[in-house]
Structures are given as C-alpha cells and as structure tokens.
C-alpha cells in the first residue's frame, strides 16, 4: 500500500510538473506560490471561477512585470555608477538567433562604501544595443548616445576595453581612437581573453599535428552537412553533433 501511494504521488507530481511546463514559467510560479499565500490563492480561485474578471495574469501583464523589474534593476545599477563617478566601458557585439547584431554594454567601476570602508570592483551589465552597422563611426555614435541617455558623462570614462578587431582597436580611425579624441583620459586596454584566444589560434597553426586534426574535423563536418541523408545517418550513429571548426 505504501509503495502504491508513493507511486501515485510520484505520478501526480509528474503530471503537475508537466502542467507547469505547459502553462509557462510565470503561471507555474504563481501556482506554486499560492499554496503558501491565502490572498494569492483566493485571487487565482476568483480568476478561474470568473473568466471575464481582471486576473493580472495575461501575457501583457507578465511582460509589464518583466519591464518594471528590468527598469528597477537598471536604475539601481546606473545610480551606483553615477555615485562612484569614474568608470570603464566594455563592449562586444555578436549576432543573435534572429540574425540581429547585438552590442553588449558593460560598465566597470570601483564601488566605495565610506561607512564600512569597503572597496569593490564591480561590473554591471546594462543590456544589449541593436546595431545596424559595425563601422567605427556608427559604433561611436551608438555608444555616445547611449551614455548620454543613461546620464553617464563620457568625460568621466577612464578606460575602454574591446576585442582585437581592427574596427575597435585601430589607432587612426578605430573606435578606441574616436573615443580618445572625445576624452583623452579614456585609455584603451586590450581584452586579455581575446588576446589569449588569438595567441592560441596562431600558435596552433604552427603545429602540423594540430593543423591536420582540425582540418580532419572540418572535412568530416563538410562531408556530412552537404547531404541530408548522410547527416541523418550520422545522427543515428552518434549521440553528438558535428560542428564547424
């Protein structure tokens, strides 16, 4: 009897988990929370019994909640940055699944708590900026406008950090030089991770064994990816996916 009860309970939990998965994360969280909150439980019960009533559980309301939370977090981060005055900017771009170029904006600053006398280096991710051109002039315009809208003076910038792409690091018309022309105190620092990655790539190209290995991997991917039939055979034979080098 005990084993049967445990089995039934496990089956019920699986069904609940499946239902939670179907209704979405927000409604699943509400369903979990109202077990411990009588006020919320009463509200949800009223909404279920009166389909035409205002429930505040619609997708539009969910998006508004997310927007409010995001705005609150962003305001707090910007407040901390402004309070500590000097900062560094870290930027990098990459295409998303929708083939839109997204520029990530990160601000690094030294947070000083004068009451506890603690000094902490912090990095705050402020969001993504969709860009339509990756030339240095357009990137400069986007960054200057975003800093202005965030009310973070460019004059207080003391460092800028990007990858090693020529459009970012160029000493004549690259982004870092354009920012330096606006504020000569914004010193440019190469990203160590990108530098290490490039060093590894160039070092690997000097070793015949490594070159042969990666060339073989590329050939395998090319062979199977150019035929849907061969790709299906590969998927049936292996539990992993072959990717481009």
UniProtKB/TrEMBL annotation:
Pfam families: DUF4371
InterPro entries: DUF4371 (IPR025398), RNaseH-like_sf (IPR012337)
Domain DUF4371, first and last residues per copy: 2-174
Entry-linked PANTHER family: DUF4371 DOMAIN-CONTAINING PROTEIN, PTHR45749
Protein name: DUF4371 domain-containing protein
Source organism of the structure: Ladona fulva
């Amino acid at each position: 009897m005990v084993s049967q009860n445990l089995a039934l309970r496990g089956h019920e939990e699986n069904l609940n988990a499946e239902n939670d998965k179907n209704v979405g994360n927000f409604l699943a969280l509400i369903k979990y929370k109202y077990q411990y909150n009588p006020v919320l439980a009463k509200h949800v019960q009223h909404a279920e019994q009166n389909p035409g009533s205002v429930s505040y559980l619609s997708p539009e309301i969910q998006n508004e909640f997310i927007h409010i939370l995001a705005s609150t977090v962003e305001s707090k981060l910007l407040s901390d940055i402004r309070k500590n005055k000097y900062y560094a900017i870290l930027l990098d771009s990459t295409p998303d699944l929708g083939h839109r170029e997204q520029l990530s904006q990160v601000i690094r600053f030294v947070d000083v708590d004068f009451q506890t006398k603690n000094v902490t280096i912090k990095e705050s991710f402020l969001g993504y900026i969709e860009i339509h051109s990756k030339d240095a002039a357009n990137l400069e315009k986007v960054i200057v406008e975003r800093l202005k809208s965030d009310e973070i003076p460019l004059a207080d910038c003391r460092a800028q950090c990007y990858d090693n792409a020529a459009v970012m690091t160029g000493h004549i018309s690259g982004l870092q030089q354009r920012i330096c022309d606006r504020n000569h105190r914004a010193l440019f620092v190469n990203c160590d991770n990108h530098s290490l990655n490039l060093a590894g790539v160039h070092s690997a190209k000097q070793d015949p064994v490594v070159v042969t290995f990666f060339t073989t991997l590329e050939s395998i991917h090319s062979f199977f990816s150019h035929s849907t039939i061969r790709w299906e055979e590969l998927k049936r034979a292996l539990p992993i996916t072959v990717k481009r080098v």
